[in-house]
Specification:
This protein is α/β, with parallel strands linked by helices. The chain is built from 18 helices and 17 strands.
Length: about 700
Amino acid sequence: MAESAGVRTPLFQHMDQILNKETGSRFTLLLADSGMGKSAFMLNYAARNMLRLFPPFPIMVLPFNYARLFEDIDAVQKPSDTVLLLDAFDEDATAYEDHQSRLGEVMERVQGFRHVVITCRSHFFTSDREIPDETGVTRLGVRKAGVSAILRFNRLYISPFTESQVEAFLRRRYPFWRRQERNAARRIIKKAPDLTARPMLLSHVEKLVRSQEPLRSLAQIYARMVDAWLVREAGYIAPDKEGLRRFSHAVAMDIMLNRARRKQERIPFAEIEPLAERWNIRVQGGVLEQGRVLEQGRVLGARPLLNRDAHGNYKFAHRSFLEFFFLEAFLALPPSERPVIAWSELTKTFFLGMLYDSNAVGSRNRTKERMTQFQCVDLSGMDIARETLKYVAGTGRSLRKNTLMFNDHLWAVTLTDTNWESANLQNAQLIGAHFLASNLQNADLQGSDLTGANLSGANLAGADLSGAHLSGAKLSGANLIEANLIEAKLYVAKLSKAKLSEAKLLRADLSEANLSGANLSEANLSKAYLSGANLSEADLSGADLSGADLSGANLSEADLSGADLFGVGLTGAKLLRANLSEAYLSGAYLSGAKLSAAKLSGAKLLRADLSGADLSGADLSEADLSGADLSGADLSGADLSGADLSGADLSEADLTKANLSGALLRATNITSAKLSPENLKYALQAGAITTDSDQSNLPMTELTE
């Protein structure tokens, strides 16, 4: 069935209408998920046309997954009379690198054909906006007003079978005398919605009916089909199905690793021979056969997993089997040997299914030990919570507590103590996921949603978390050394004792986050939002906090020695006993801040706003406070020896028992300040108070004992 603009019509009928139009676009994009019948439509539509007594036009079918694609296109004698059906754009090796450029290259070569139909998996494009709309081919002739000069794609979608269509299929497959099997098939389909969405799987429902194990995931459905095929093939050519499985793994891995070089997802006859010999499978006359052939001399069955094209290249019967075998081979490798390679949406779905199967009650298909290694996996853009939830629906099974957890209204996948080193989780949906003590070193998590996730004790050193959503996430004790957290959302996140030295936190939102005891030495927090954050006892030595907002933050006993706090907002912040020695605070806003007993020796506080701040007992020796606003500040007992207070405003400040020895007080305003007799005497000697006729700066001082 085709779906266009929300209307369901029979696909053959709809395609006839499109191809017989003399006006309109000559290019059609047919989209569907894996196994929904794109290739089957192409072949059957072309076959129906050939069987007609008077075919209206010649049809040529070519796969994108084919090295001689352009050679065969250029060889067409009359392209203007020919309909070209190009199958599986998503399987084109070059399209994986840059699908827009590749499509433009293809359109340039095919623009002279009567009509061109291109099939592609809908999930090949990351969003609807990425699905091509314009062909890049210029419309010839006179155009009506408002009609674009560039031809556009007709866009069609193959929709899943309706319930009545599925029922009709089951009645044909299982006549009334096989009612028991028909009912078993109905129960399987009810628990596995993928079967109705993918006709290729539905055609193999008989293999699933024979199995007694319950279905849990799409990966498990494929595992059963593969097992059935391997048993059948081994029965013809070998007693050992596992040898044939390992051979299939080797072929799948070879195809995936070399598809860019070969420009196709096929393996030539000359290159498959060494792989066959390794697993005692002999290649003879272009046919794969076991070294120990049975007496009947039979080879691979009529419907093998591996078959050949017209040029002798080997390929899997369906690309989904290539992806399934590749993933099995990938997971069987030691993590250090796994190749970094982009995964398709289906491969990611298989992986999540295997992950669920490995932890489900009664599962015997995957060991937990194998599935705890996730190094180099690619789950970019996946909504893991949603995908995993699919495997729960309809199973009727209880779940282990460490498999899935219901947290508030979110499903959280538990991935405790797992290895995701260098994994691609870009834009992944990981809301509430549990990554306790997991290894995510150098993982790509940019733009991912980890809201409420538990990453306590996780290793995220060097990880890319730029733009990631980590609001409310638990990162206590996590290793984030040199991590990229630029513009990350860490609102109310728990980062106590986390290691963030040299981390990039530019413009990150850490409002009200708990960073107590965290190591942020040499971290870049420029223009970060830290209002209300708890940074007590945190190590911020040498950190760049220029332009950051720390209003209301708790920095008590924090180490800010040598930190760059230029223009920082610290209004109302708590800095009790904090170490700010040699810190750069020029132009900082510290109005009402609590700096009691803080160490500010040698600090640069030029033109800083310290009005109303509590600096009682603070060490400001040798500090540069020139031009600073200290009006109403509490400096009682503070050490201001050698400090530069020239041009500073100390009006109404409390300087009781403050040490002003050696301080520079040129043009300092101490109007209405509280001064001890010694400080008043020093202020007169230093020139802060004049005795000439103009006594505008003569303070109404309050002398204290």
